[in-house]
Design the sequence.
């Protein structure tokens, strides 16, 4: 019987190919939507794992997280230096690092921060070392520059008509290990240099603080003090420190995290857990996925209806063949089994091909998103996908029953007369 089925499918290869492709593309649509949404959720959740609390000026929670954690630059209001100083000296805080952005180089964002933040989030260096002065830079693993390269920061981007800063030239002093986050595509520089080139470092007492920190490294705020040709690195925060768009905070305990969040969610400051903000975004993504899933189910329903018409037409066209088989003594059950097996084989092949196409499409889409955002998004199947595949196969088995039943009912005399 298997040989007969294979011979029959080979003879009717054009129609069989159409059936397989219809099923494959309808299945691939749903699989792509599911895998891509899951990859986005997993990737963004992992990217935010290192950052427990984000503090900024009062405004949009979502934009604060997107800008500080995922480095999606936006004109955020600045949180005061007094807040930065308070957080770095708070006994409930393990470390706190400012984040300043707005400049770029060769398409990579330049992020002003401190050695404390780098040491606590990067996982170490692939080569070189951290910045030792105000003109040093550290690059993420995905930045296409070499250690020792010179960087001339541009305010904004070339596409936006940005201009190149002439006040400073950074020198790459180290490359960080991969983290699977947008920080892999970032150029990290002392926050003090960002303030300097934007004219924000001329506050009262700056010279005194720079002299006090000359030759020492402190956690927190950085300020460049130029002495000859060398810019000293100072990471001491005070109430006179310039403002920053965001502060990334690592509380010592879970209880401390909630207390800090409550304390800085009032007045002119805003404190958020990135995970909470992402959960809200996932809800929105989930709604979008539901809409796309309905579209996919609708497409699959239309394909199923088309397949029923195709298979019924197929049975009508094969009436004489079925009649001849019956006339030669083939039992009804064998003929109906042959028809069912042929159609189910075509449907199952289309479903398997659809999962393969959906997986490949999700991989391609994810690769484009990773190249743009830097967030590593794992495209992988889960147990729910096995359930979906089993359900599709069950539906396919059900659809194949109708033409098999029609073939079973057909008498040899009627078939041969047709």
Sequence:
């Amino acid at each position: 019987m298997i040989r007969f089925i294979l011979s029959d499918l080979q003879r009717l290869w054009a129609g069989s190919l159409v059936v397989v492709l219809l099923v494959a593309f309808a299945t691939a649509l749903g699989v792509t939507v599911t895998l891509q949404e899951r990859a986005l959720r997993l990737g963004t959740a992992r990217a935010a794992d290192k950052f427990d609390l984000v503090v900024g000026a009062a405004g949009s929670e979502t934009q604060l997280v997107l800008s500080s954690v995922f480095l999606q630059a936006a004109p955020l209001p600045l949180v005061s230096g007094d807040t930065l100083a308070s957080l770095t000296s708070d006994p409930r805080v393990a470390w706190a690092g400012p984040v300043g952005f707005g400049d770029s180089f060769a398409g990579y964002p330049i992020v002003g921060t401190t050695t404390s933040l780098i040491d606590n989030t990067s996982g170490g260096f692939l080569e070189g070392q951290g910045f030792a002065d105000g003109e040093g830079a550290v690059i993420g693993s995905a930045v296409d520059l070499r250690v020792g390269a010179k960087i001339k920061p541009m305010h904004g981007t070339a596409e936006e008509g940005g201009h190149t800063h002439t006040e400073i030239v950074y020198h790459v002093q180290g490359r960080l290990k991969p983290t699977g986050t947008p920080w892999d595509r970032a150029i990290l520089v002392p926050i003090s240099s960002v303030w300097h080139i934007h004219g924000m470092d001329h506050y009262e007492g700056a010279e005194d603080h720079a002299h006090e920190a000359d030759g020492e490294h402190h956690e927190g705020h950085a300020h460049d003090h130029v002495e000859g040709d060398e810019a000293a690195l100072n990471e001491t925060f005070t109430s006179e420190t310039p403002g920053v768009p965001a502060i990334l905070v690592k509380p010592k305990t879970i209880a401390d995290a909630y207390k800090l969040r409550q304390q800085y969610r009032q007045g002119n400051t805003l404190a958020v857990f990135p995970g909470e903000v992402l959960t809200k975004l996932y809800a929105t993504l989930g709604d979008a996925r539901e809409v796309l899933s309905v579209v996919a189910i609708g497409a699959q329903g239309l394909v199923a209806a088309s397949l029923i018409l195709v298979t019924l037409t197929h049975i009508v066209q094969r009436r004489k063949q079925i009649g001849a088989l019956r006339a030669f003594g083939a039992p009804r059950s064998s003929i109906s089994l042959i028809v069912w097996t042929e159609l189910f084989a075509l449907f199952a092949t289309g479903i398997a091909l659809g999962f393969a196409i959906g997986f490949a499409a999700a991989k391609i889409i994810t690769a484009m998103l990773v190249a743009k955002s830097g967030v590593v998004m794992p495209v992988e199947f889960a147990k729910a996908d096995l359930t979906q595949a089993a359900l599709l196969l069950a539906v396919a088995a059900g659809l194949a029953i109708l033409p098999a039943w029609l073939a079973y009912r057909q008498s040899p005399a009627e078939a041969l007369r047709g």
Observations:
- The chain is about 55% helix and 15% strand.
